[in-house]
Amino acid sequence: MSLYIAVIILFQTVWLIRFLNKTNRKIAFFFNAIENNDSTINFPYDIKTRSIRELNSSLNRVNKLLQEAKINIKEQEQYYQTILEEAETGILVLNGTGHIIHSNKTARQLLNYPHLTHIQQLQPISESLFQTLQKQQSFDQKLIQIPNERESIHLTAKARKLILKEENLLIVVIQNIHKELDNQEVESWQRLIRVLTHEIMNSVAPITSISETLLGYFKKDGELVKPASITQEKVKQAVKALDTINYQGSNLMKFTDSYRTLTKIPEPDKKLLNVRSIFETVRILVSQEDSVDRISFKTTIAPKELEVYADEKLITLVLLNLIKNAIHSLADQDNGQIELSGEKDELGRLALMVSDNGPGISPCMLQKIFVPFFTTKKDGSGIGLSLSKHIMKLHHGSIEVKSKPQVKTIFSLHFQQGLG
């Protein structure tokens, strides 16, 4: 009896081992198929053994879920690939060896290169971009100018490092700012035209109205009135009207002359100038301004012997305008402070700044203050800041403003690499 039981146990043990081996081989086959990306496998359902049938059913169900997941991933890849390819922003993906593993259509169009495979191809297009990308480092927005047969294209580029599957990648984003510059130029012209129209209409409308009144004194029904009918009172009114016309005409002439001033700035006669000396000069020139005695001045220069390559008269004019504006803004303030500062960063870029702790400039006004003839002053001409901006452009620099109302307003003059 015991022998019979032993045989049965042995038989069941062998059967169990074979069953487990078969199951393990089936599962191993399943995972090998998945690893080899083979989604065609299918395990039969017509198996007598219930456990094997349930196992086959489970494996088929898992395989189906994996197939659906792969299809979804593939669709998402195609979706994002289409977005990247059709985006108006150029995108380059570089690996650690400088190979371009992806470039979308916009990037190829902006760089005027149909097939981008390595950053070496960018060297003839833009030496600065090539040198920057060769470092394989993240960088903030940089301005790139690419010449072609008709004109230069202005682009901006920035990059970020990324580690993906233990591989160092650099994602570079390139944008064409030509359209943006065009839009800003159109908006500037629109604002200028609005200001010009407003000023001219303010001067011409009274002249037209008064002229019609004068004609009524001396013409009736299309004919001149007789001298005997002109009273002394009408003569006085006519003289007063003519004085008003003369006054309005003079204002219009001054307005026109201020516009001519904007268009007649000479080319800068640039020399190396000591920044401290310039600050001392403008400080003396504004010493007679109203309410200046109630304002404290501070000068900060680093390095101490900082020099700027610029036209002395033009830069002095810009600084004078900025300081006078600051003095005007502090007229009703007891603790007024103005700071003149100059600095040079590690890349050699130089900036001169005029800051004050006055009421500041509201965000809506920041977009308008550089428009010619726009002014918030009752007796202002509205050309000071637009003139300053034009002078900085002639120096190949820029003027910027940051303002936090009731805290601080800073006007900055930026010079490229310390040179105008």
UniProtKB/TrEMBL annotation:
Histidine kinase domain ranges (all copies): 195-419
Keywords: ATP-binding, Coiled coil, Kinase, Nucleotide-binding, Transferase, Two-component regulatory system
InterPro entries in the cross-refs: HATPase_C_sf, HATPase_dom, His_kinase_dom, PAS, PAS-like_dom_sf, Sig_transdc_His_kin-like_C
Annotated SMART domains: HATPase_c
CDD domains in alphabetical order: HATPase, PAS
Coiled-coil ranges from the UniProt annotation: 52-86
Keyword check for Chaperone: no
Catalytic activity as recorded in UniProt: ATP + protein L-histidine = ADP + protein N-phospho-L-histidine
Protein origin, superkingdom: Bacteria
Residue span(s) of domain PAS: 76-113
EC number per UniProt: 2.7.13.3
Keyword ATP-binding: yes
Name recorded for this polypeptide: histidine kinase
Organism: Echinicola arenosa
